[in-house]
């Protein structure tokens, strides 16, 4: 009877204990691997786990999950670049660039980036691990990262433009110290909202952590806070800037007039960029006081460059919302086009309406990424936890006050002659449009004295341009070229 009671109590204890789901604040696991990159063998160690975030009383209040890839046949780490990688959202995990762009494994997708079954991962023969070590970071509440004491820790510590930058800069300092990488050339790469994050981190790391960077890579950049509002993309400016994106999407779906359709995409985009800035914008600036003749001529040209009707354009007074374009471009064929990548098609409940029912590209990506990342940690990196991997985590409301991140990046570049910035954008991205990104680049440094340290690369895909195999190859090569160019060797940091 006593043994039966003991067994019952033990069973109850373990049952109750098993209901608690948590993640340790400070615990990692390492495994050794090898891949072939550009035809050469690259041995590396993968370290994944958590590192704490501490509050002002030095108490661990959150566990930030990361995955660090370190090439193991390199003796001199002082000259070995370190790439620190963030995705965006805000609230998005680092899974996207981790399992599709720079890491040693990528999704099993077709050459255009569409999901295929069985799901899983394969070696990435284009990973930049041959020339740089990489750490992928999941900010709090994304991926496996969590607040440790939700009852006593204020969410306001983490969830805002400045809050996010502040705690992550401290976290990076600890990581670089633990991994003994203070001598190494350092780079930040961010995608989407991650570009806001890394632009702010560039100055925060310099001014608060005394850590100086060699490069910042902005992948599909959002609107950055730039001094005196120069970076804003709304009003007549925004309406003009989005037209080249309309052209790219229409060209892809073969909706342009034949004389344009027969040209290469880049040739057409050069033409429409010139039109948008030099002719369309002055008309839009006049608003309701533009002449009827000018308005109708602008509608005719916009229809020619966008694949939608003059009537629809006039109904919006020349200021066509991107959301309407996603619904309108293929309306007669019964499809919508994707927001983040307009190569993707969707099907709505009705063909009527002014915006799609869902983002067709995002559902496609989640289709492939979610099973892959869950499989990868458990089976390849041997990291096991009952925590759910948050592809998108609960981080809202997000405090957007004080977003001066574009100006922060300019200041960081001005203070650090070593620091360069490269922008990478997909032509078919309808959310963070490529021409918006070019405009942001033009406005970061109004003096023009640092324009030789700012560069732009475009790709024939969307928000995650690296999903398309041809662009995966070229975008990683562009990263290699950028890193190689920005390694100054023994050249002093001075003007």
Describe the structure in your own words.
- By secondary structure, the chain is of the alpha/beta class.
- The chain has two domains: 27-229 and 367-485, Rossmann fold, CATH 3.40.50; 235-359, no CATH class.
- It is built from 15 helices and 14 strands.
- The strands form three sheets. Strands 1, 2, 3, 4, 7, 8, 9, 10, 13 and 14 form a ten-stranded mixed beta sheet that branches. A two-stranded antiparallel ribbon has the order 5-6. Strands 11-12 form a two-stranded antiparallel ribbon.
- Strand 2 (40-54) and strand 3 (60-71) form a beta hairpin.
- Helix 3 crosses helix 4 (193-208) and helix 4 (193-208) packs across helix 13.
- The chain is globular.
- It starts with a helix and ends in a 10-residue tail after the last helix.
- The mean pLDDT is 93.
- One of its GO terms (molecular function) is serine-type carboxypeptidase activity.
- This is Carboxypeptidase C (Cathepsin A).
- InterPro entries: AB_hydrolase_fold (IPR029058), Peptidase_S10 (IPR001563).
- It comes from Ekhidna lutea.
Q: Could you name the key traits of this structure?
A:
alpha/beta, two-stranded antiparallel sheet, 495 residues, 10-stranded mixed β-sheet, globular, Rossmann fold, single chain, 37% helix, 2 domains
């Amino acid at each position: 009877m006593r043994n039966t009671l003991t067994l019952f109590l033990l069973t109850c204890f373990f049952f109750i204990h098993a209901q608690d789901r948590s993640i340790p604040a400070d615990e990692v696991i390492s495994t050794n691997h090898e891949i072939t990159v550009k035809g050469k063998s690259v041995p590396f160690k993968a370290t994944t786990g958590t590192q704490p975030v501490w509050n002002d009383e030095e108490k661990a209040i959150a566990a930030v999950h990361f995955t660090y890839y370190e090439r193991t046949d390199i003796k001199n780490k002082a000259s070995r670049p370190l790439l620190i990688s963030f995705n965006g959202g805000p609230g998005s995990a680092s899974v996207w660039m981790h399992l599709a762009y720079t890491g040693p494994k990528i999704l099993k997708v077709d050459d255009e980036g569409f999901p295929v079954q069985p799901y899983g991962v394969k070696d990435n023969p284009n990973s930049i691990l041959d020339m740089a070590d990489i750490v992928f970071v999941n900010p709090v509440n994304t991926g496996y990262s969590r607040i440790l004491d939700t009852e006593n820790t204020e969410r306001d510590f983490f969830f805002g433009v400045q809050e996010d930058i502040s705690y992550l800069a401290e976290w990076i300092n600890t990581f670089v110290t633990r991994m003994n990488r203070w001598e190494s050339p350092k780079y930040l790469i961010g995608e989407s909202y991650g570009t806001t994050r890394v632009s702010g981190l560039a100055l925060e790391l310099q001014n608060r952590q005394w850590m100086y960077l060699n490069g910042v890579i902005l992948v599909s950049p959002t609107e950055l806070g730039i001094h005196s509002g120069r970076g804003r993309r709304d009003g007549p400016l925004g309406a003009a800037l989005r037209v080249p994106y309309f052209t790219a999407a229409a060209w892809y779906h073969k909706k342009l007039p034949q004389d344009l359709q027969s040209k290469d995409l880049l040739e057409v985009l050069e033409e429409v960029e010139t039109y948008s800035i030099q002719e369309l914008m002055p008309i839009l600036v006049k608003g309701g006081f533009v002449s009827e003749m000018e308005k109708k001529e602008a509608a005719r040209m916009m229809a020619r460059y966008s694949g939608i009707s003059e009537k629809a354009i006039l109904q919006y007074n020349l200021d066509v919302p991107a959301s309407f374009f996603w619904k309108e471009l293929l309306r007669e064929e019964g499809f919508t086009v994707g927001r983040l990548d307009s190569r993707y098609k969707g099907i709505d409940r009705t063909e009527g309406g002014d915006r799609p029912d869902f983002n067709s590209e995002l559902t496609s990506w989640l289709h492939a990424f979610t099973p892959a990342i869950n499989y990868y940690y458990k089976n390849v990196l041997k990291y096991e936890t009952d925590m759910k991997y948050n592809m998108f985590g609960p981080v809202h409301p997000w405090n957007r006050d004080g977003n001066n991140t574009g100006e922060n990046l300019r200041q960081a570049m001005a203070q650090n002659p070593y620091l360069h910035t490269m922008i990478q954008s997909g032509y078919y991205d309808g959310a963070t449009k490529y021409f918006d990104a070019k405009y942001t680049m033009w406005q970061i440094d109004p003096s023009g004295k640092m324009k030789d340290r700012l560069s732009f690369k475009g790709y024939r895909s969307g928000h995650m341009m690296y999903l398309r195999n041809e662009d995966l190859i070229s975008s990683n090569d562009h990263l290699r070229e950028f890193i190689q160019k920005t390694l100054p060797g023994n050249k002093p940091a001075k003007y």
